[in-house]
Structure formats: structure tokens, C-alpha cells
DNA sequence: CATGTAAATGTAATCGATTACATTTACGGG
DNA sequence: CCCGTAAATGTAATCGATTACATTTACATG
């Protein structure tokens, strides 16, 4: 493993010249450029990023904080981030916090220790105080889950509006007893989606029954199942269920199916995110589509601009209601 | 952002002493240790990994190569890798090649340029020549998909045996017309699983009909659907299907369901990997369980040992047949 | 041919740590 | 009080690049 010195001496030039060749600068004569390139080839030289990184004091690594990769919702976002990152010579460190503050802290430390140049946080459970404090000296963007007035730029969708549309769709189909499978209301998206749910009901003169609102501990198939188990145990069962995540909806669907009930005849079902599996279930799932790839690319661009020191504005993207079998015989 | 110099001068000691305090070495008197710690706190000092990494010429980053994170099969493996990595102060760079040689090369370059200390490759489509060449100077482990006699240590399962058991299970249930949804035979696991399939058939005197063997271009829900579409178009439809991946099986199931056929009555179905969703389908999927988390932890441990320069032996782990509704009314 | 200017190349400081080796300090025993 | 040894601390080289600034070279012009 040769270093720049050895290349320089083999080529009979200074390290500066080698560096200039490597970095493709113009001020090198063709003759020396060739000499240097030969030496590089001969020694199999690859510039060490460790040296370069120290000198330029950047790591060219972006940290992406997600609660867990088990939720396919993040897949396309990550793909978007990755595509932009790679095109700009960055790499991404994908960090699952698993809602574990210790893990989170390990990852925050990577930024503090300059092992990463910035953070895209998608973790709803992130410690927002720490994140804001970090954002004073480091480039940080929130994606999907965000915080109002934190000063941290974000890219997300109109959760309340999306939720409103989903529930309105159910109401138009004639449903009045509509349950909500939400997650913990400490998360902004959970509050916003619940707001949309309530707004739709109220607008149509349907009273909001707190007994119809369920809170899953987390997003996950099994939590959807659990919630649906409770719903199916109710005296006055709802005729429709809106889950704030496809994973919850798919878990719920599993529970409905295994009791022999029919979707949508016995119970209609709407999810959120349009993950790939939502089209594989039987019946297929009506859901809200988010522009996930786009969101990822934007988040990455915003972060890179922020790293460059530019001002960055937050963005709200459009969503879409995708009507499938679970709400339409 | 203070550096070690500033801490040293504020504490009135040399940088060496600060470094010793930071790295928790014994040869520092309690008095100076306290002085230094105060200075560190006062200046909000965080040691830069860039400096350290250059000096120790390691990046403490492990590169994990996977074809795509869309396949939940990798989730638990990644979790295993991550847990070990973090416990040993490493971080992982998760790299999706998307079967794109260009991407792959970008990632290989990270190792060449010392941005990563080693590679765990799980990509069946990896360029094995390049990987072997790299392994001469860099620590590399293969996980799940491997290469015989390449000199690269691996951790995997007995694909042929697992496949054999799955198909034998179908035969015992009385099936004789059993189709195989495989992937491209250029992958070792595909060949091994096909071998197991053939072995089971032959052992029971069932002739292997090449018309029953289908090749999906890739692993993915839609490819499973496509393959099943062809199968359902056959004159002499099989009574059972074994897919070499749960994703393929779930796609296939979707196709069967939407034609109104019943699993397992009309067609029995077996998948491979036991991903979470395989228990959410209707009916639930009989499948082969791989010890994915374990595989991940082992791969990580092997890689770290390899980085340390130790000799590392390959490992074959046990698998398990999980019988569920898709093969048993 | 001297000279000025631009192009090409070189010198050496620098990024921020670690660490071998050197030096100083502390302290117990004679 | 001196000395030897161990403990504590310091000095300075080093990792491998980048780059400001200095120097050399090339070449056109009068």
C-alpha cells in the first residue's frame, strides 16, 4: 500500500504535483502528468481518505438516523438519500436507534467526533433537545418526522391533510363507526394524523369517540395485530379502521382474516405509506402514498447544502390516496 | 470545536497527557487527570476521529454489501452485524449494490482508500474475482452467499439440505407435481437449492421435469407474481410450489389468491427465509428459517478477527423447516 | 539577449491525534 | 541528605494527504 511520498519519488516529482494529478488540477504539464500516472499505476497507489479527511476536516459521511429498518417505509427514502449522496461523493451511515437513547448517543457522538459531516434524522423518538443543541454546530435535517420551530429544516408531508383524506374516503363510503389505530401521541405525526381523523369526523357531524382511538406502542406488524384484537373484542365494533401505518394495517388485516371476517365487507381498512407489501395482501390495502424517494433526495440535497453553509428551507410534499380492495369490494 | 492542543494548554499539560487521559491510561496522576478533565469539559472537547484514524490508520468502519435492503431477509442479519460492530466500537456502512457493478466499485474503493477496514459481502451478484483480489490485502467475509475455494471465509447455511427438507415435506404430503421458483443459476445458493429440490424428487422416484423449474430474474415480490402467472398457465399445473425466497413465495401467493384459487388446497406453497411478513399472509407461509441474527453476529465477529489478523474458519449454521398454513389446511 | 509574465513545480506548514523515547518528579531506604 | 527506581509528564516524530506561498522554468517580446 503505497503512499503519496512513494509515488512522488518514483515519478521524480514532489508530493504536491502528485496531489495535483490525483485531484485533476490543470496546472500540471502533460509530460509530468503521464509520469505520475505511470508511477501511480505501478505502485497501485490509492489515495488514503484518512489523510485527506484530516486535512480537509470532513469525513464525507452522512449519518441517517432511523428508528428501524424493519419498516419498509424507509426503504425508498434511503434509496433517495443514497443516490444523491453517492452522486456528490458522500456515503451514508445508516443508524437504527431502536428507540434506544444509548444507541442514539453513540450516533450523535460520531458527528461530534467528526466521523460524520451531518445528520438526516427520521427518528420520531429522537431526543429533540439534543438534536437542536447539535444543530448549532452541525448540519442537521429532519425527514418525515419533524419539529416545529426548532430551527432544524425538514422535509415532510401534510400528515393532517393526508389523514383527513383517508378518513373522509371512509365516510363517503358510508362508514360512521371508524376506529383509529394510532401510535404514541408524543410523536408529532401521530398527533397530526389524529387531528386529520378528528377533523374529518367532525366535519361530517360524526362525534369523536375516544373509545375508537387505539394507541400502538410502536409501529410493527404485531402491534397492529394486538390493536385489532382489542377492536374486534368491542361490543360495538367499528365498520372501518384507519391505521397510521401500513405495517399496523397489515397486522390488523391478519387478525381480521384469521377470525374469518371479511375485508372490506365486515370491516374496511386503510393504511398509510404504500409500502410494497400493501399491494400483496388479500385484499390489497387502500393507503396513503408518500413521495418517499423524492423525500429522500430532497433531504440529502438539503443536508449537503447545509454542510456547505447555505441557508435551507423546509419543504412539505404532496401525498396521494390510493384506493384499493380493502375499502372497495 | 477545540482540539487537543487547546485542552493541553488550558490544563497546563502536554498533549500527550491529554491523550492519556482521554484514552484512560493509568499513568496519569489523579491531580492532573482532574485538571485535564475540567479543561475538556470547559472547552467542550471531543477528540476528532479524523486525527486518530490517520494516526492509527484504521477507519473503524465495516462495509456491508447487500444487493438491496428491500429483502427483509437481510434485516436481522444486519441487526446482528450492527450489535457486534457497535460493541466493538465499529460502525457499519450499509451498501446496496442493486446488482450494479459501478456501485459495487464505488464501495470497493472505500476499502482501497482506507475509508473502511473490511467488508462483509452478502451480495450474490458480487464480482468474485475483484473480491478475491481485494481479499489479498483487506479483510473480507462472505455471509449467506459464498464462494467455494476462494479463500474468503464465510458463514452460511446448508442450502441444499434445507431445500431438500422443504421439498421432502411436500412429497410426504402427497405432492408429486412440484414446481420450483428459483433465481438465476449463476448464484451458488440457487444451484444448491435446486440440487436439494432435485435430490428430494429423485430419492422418491419422481422424475425431475425441467418444465417445472422457473427462474425469476431477481428476488422480489413482482418476480414471484410473474413466475406464478406462468405456472398457472401450464396445461398440467403443479399441485405444489417451492420458492427459494419468501418474497417470491409471497408474490406467487398474491397471484394465486387473485385468481381465486386456494392455498394449500389447490396449490401448496413453501417459501424460504422466514421473513416477518411470511406469517402475515393469508394463509401463512410454510418456510425455511435461517438463523439470521446469529449469522450476522458471526459474520461481524469473523470480520473483526480477520481485521486483527487472526485466522478465521468458515461456518455452516443450522436451518429449520417451519410448517404453517400454506402446506397444511 | 535581457526581461517580464505565465505556467509548472517544489517546499514546508498543517490538519489532530498517538506514542516511542526522553526527561523530570516523587519518594523510600541507607 | 543522597541515590536509585518507579511514576508522571513532556518532546517531537509520525500517520498521509492538501495547499499557501516560494521558486524555477518556459517562452514571447522588444
Automatic annotation (TrEMBL), chains A, B:
The keyword DNA-binding applies. It comes from the Bacteria. SMART domains: HTH_LACI. Gene3D superfamilies: 3.40.50.2300, lambda repressor-like DNA-binding domains. One of its GO terms (molecular function) is transcription cis-regulatory region binding. Coiled coil: none annotated. CDD domains: HTH_LacI, PBP1_LacI-like. Residues 2-56 form the HTH lacI-type domain. PANTHER family: HTH-TYPE TRANSCRIPTIONAL REGULATOR GALS, LACI-RELATED TRANSCRIPTIONAL REPRESSOR. This is LacI family transcriptional regulator. It comes from Peribacillus deserti.
